[in-house]
Amino acid sequence: METRKNILTEPIVDIQNVCIRYGKDPEVLSDIKLTLEKGSFHFLTGKSGAGKTSLLSMMYLALKPSRGTVMVFGTNVGYASRDAMAGLRRRIGVVFQDFRLLEHLSAYDNVAVPLRIKGMGENEIKKRVKELLSWVELDKSMDKICSTLSGGEKQRVAIARAVINRPEILLADEPTGNVDNDIASKLMKLFVELNKLGTTVVIATHSKDLIAEYNYPQIHLENKGLKIIPALRRI
Ligand SMILES: Nc1ncnc2c1ncn2[C@@H]1O[C@H](COP(=O)(O)OP(=O)(O)OP(=O)(O)O)[C@@H](O)[C@H]1O
Ligand SMILES: [Mg+2]
Prior knowledge:
The chain is an alpha/beta fold. It is built from 7 helices and 10 strands. The termini are far apart. Adenosine-5'-triphosphate (ATP) binds at residues 22, 25, 28, 46, 48-54, 97.
């Protein structure tokens, strides 16, 4: 008999006994466990090469674990069909470390993609995309083709595309790595607001300043393992 699940406490991401390795290389992460509650906010930390991008790729269902179980939105992704995986992915916003924008399209069209996939009307799309691109201070660059944008501008387009659809999970890989401190604060504000609306957020970062200022718990990767460093209590 199926047990009745408590929706309030069911984790949105549940990773159990997972190993990640590429081909025959040694394991990058070994036997990790991670449970993310709905509406939580974590930084993802660890040295370069520790496996942050790999872990985010797995949560985005772009990388299969070599061992263990990954459940996202209560679905065991190891048994999910292609269509089901695509459906799950549409509920996740992702900011890739290397942006992965559609370089031949404008900033506006890149950000509009998730809304067009959803079938939203162009008037509503225009309103939303313009508002968000203004917020990330790209109002003057909206019509520029992405390949002509600076690294920091591309990063903001990637962030806007990831959040425009208010995803249930936001995975952001070094999202403030290419922008100045003022813009970084603004982007963090965006993530915090989204989190207040219910989005579960994971942000990979090397920035000690960001971690100290925002004081969220850390998922810390070290020696192929994972530990949670709780948020410090403010006095
Ligand atoms: N596609 C791949 N094929 C083979 N090895 C890979 C691949 N992607 C990552 N790796 C290896 O996995 C390890 C972890 O890489 P990953 O990119 O996850 O680290 P990271 O913590 O994100 O590092 P950084 O802080 O530099 O972004 C590295 O040793 C890397 O060489
Ligand atoms: Mg990385």
